[in-house]
Every structure is written in structure tokens, then in C-alpha cells.
Amino acid sequence: MFSSNLFLLLVLSLTVNVSAGIYFFLAPALAFPISKSDSEIAKRLIKFYKEKPRLIRKLFRDQIFAILLFSCGLYCSSSREMYAKPLRNTSSTFLVIFSVYLGNYVFKFCQDFLLRRELPLYKISLLHHFVTATTYGVIIAYRQNSISGVVGLLFEGSVLVFDLNSLLRFLGVSKTGWLVLCTSVLRFFVTILLRALCPIALLAITLSTHTPLSLEYVPLGFFFMNIVFFSMINGWHIKMSFEGFKKRLLARRLSYYYSRPRAASDGMELNNVASLTQILTRTALPIVIPSDANFRLSSPVSNVNMNSDEVSNIAVSRHERTLPQINVIINDTPASNEPINQV
Q1: How confident is the model at residue 260 (pLDDT cuts 50, 70, 90)?
Q2: Where does the sequence pass through the membrane (predicted)?
């Protein structure tokens, strides 16, 4: 048991070291031959590498391990051992693969934490990496719940397409081109296949012949926690891939519509439209200013207007109501140049 745990720890450490080597040395080594290419994509890639080298290194390392781990997931899902012992007594081959996966996410957690200023939604990514690393640590320590480990390996296939789509966006590839559209379509269908259909099918096959209650308490808790947590993560991935697919399809349709030649439209005259000189100016309404000071200072809804003792020019009775005296009528243009007389 001790030698087995020591070997798995060695595999984990070796994975972290290999990841660091790929991160620091692979991208600079590939930059020289890529710079000799005359293609537009190669030129944009070199330019982006000079501007943000750490993001290119991250994408290169993540792509390599995504391909490796997804291949391991296909191998494990096609193995008889996975269906014979999906919950208990995990085989040593699976444990080695899970150790590589654990080392990958230990490195990704440290990597994304150091690159947090350049990554959007880095807190969600760190939470995902922490939960994933903890889950595989429990799987390796208890040697149980291998079905969750295999499902996690299959998730890496969608990460591969997701990172490829992000790389095309960073390189400034036309969003209305066929390359981005095909990548968006591939991302949408691969995400549905690997993050919805495959996990549901594998869990249905496992639960039809085995019960998760046979697990110990800690693996049992992680089994149900993984179902809830990764269901939310997978739902978010499916939603984002579907929205990206819709946007690319709409952009493609709009670019096709506006790129079509249009027939020259003849000029049309508008009938029954008067010229600006014929538009009548609205006549200003006269403004009446009462002569009584108390009336002018009172508010529009004040009861002072109805108090005959305080307002001398207002007479209120049951049958007669007179207006106050008027001093000046404004906005009423006189017929001649005579001075305005008070009313």
C-alpha cells in the first residue's frame, strides 16, 4: 500500500514538472519555426505571442494535456474494468491516470492564480480547479468512485474545442468566416455529447447494476456533490456554446445579407408636405397677471383664494364669483405703438 501511494505521488509530481516544462519551453521552441511561415494565422499567432506570451503558453499546455487526458478517458470508458468495478476497488491503471489528471489540475490552479489578471472569470475557474483536484484526491485516496473520474476525463474533449475557439478569437479571426462558424458548431455538439449525453449514459449504466450506497461516507458525499456541482458547470458550458453558435450563425447571415448588391433606388418626392416657410408659427397664449399681491403670492391650491377677508379683489358668493383685477396682459401684441394701459 505504501509503495503504491508513493508511486502515485511520484506520478503526480512528474505531471506537475512536465507541465511546467511545457509551459516554459515548448511555446518558445515552437515560436521560431512558426515565425518562418508566411500564412496569416502564423503571423497573427507570433504577434499575439509577443504581446501576451503567458496566455499562449497556457493554451499550448492546456491543449496538450486535454488531448492526452481525453484519450485516456476514451480508453477507460471502453475498458471492461470500469463497468465491472465502477464504484469500488479501482484498478491500478485507472489510479495512475487519475494521478496524472490530479497533477494537471494542481498545476492549472497555480497557473490560473498567477494569471488571474489576464483571465476573465478567474474566480470561477479557480473554484472549478479546486473542486476537481479535491475530488480526484478523494478517488485516489479511497480507491472508490472511479465512474466520476472517467466522466471527468471525458470532459476534457470539450475543453479542447473551447480553447481552440478562444484561440481563434484572440487571433482576431473574422467572426463571420467559415472557420469560426465551423468551430462554434463543433463546440456546441461536442459540449452536448461529452457534458450531457455521455455522463448521463455512464451514470445510468452504473446505477442500473450498482448502488452508490456501497461507498464509504467521504466518497459517497463527493459522489453526490459532483453530480450537483458539475451539472451546473456543464449547464453553463452548454448555454455558452449555444449562445456562441447562435451569434456566429446570425453574424454569418447578416454578412451575407449586407454583402449582396443592391439596386439603385430612384428618388421619390414627398407629396402634401408644406415647406418650412409655410408652416404656421403657434400663436403665444396671453398670460394674465393679477394685480393683487396676496393673490399672486399664494399657491395655486391655497385656500387663501377663497378668503374674502385677506384678498380684497376676490368676491365669492353662492351665485357670483368675480376674478381679481388685472394689471398687465403679456404676449398680447398691441395694434399700435401706444403704451400698454392697465385694465
Answers
A1: low
A2: 6-34, 90-107, 119-141, 147-166, 178-205, 217-238
Residue 207 lies in a domain: yes
pTM metric for this prediction: 0.71
All three cell numbers of 35, joined, read: 515565425
What integer pLDDT is reported at residue 302 of this predicted model? 47
Residue 311, pLDDT > 70, answer no
Cα distance between residue 342 and residue 326, in whole Å = 7
Residue 64 lies in a domain: yes
Spatial distance between the Cα atoms of 278 and 275, rounded to a whole number of angstroms: 5
260 domain residue, yes or no? no
Could you tell me if 112 and 56 are in contact, meaning their C-beta atoms sit under 8 angstroms apart?
no
3-state secondary structure of 316: strand
Which of the listed ranges 33-47, 98-112, 319-333 does the model predict with the highest average pLDDT? 98-112
**Residue numbers of the domain that contains 156:** 1-255
Residues 237, 239, 244, 246, CA torsion sign:
positive
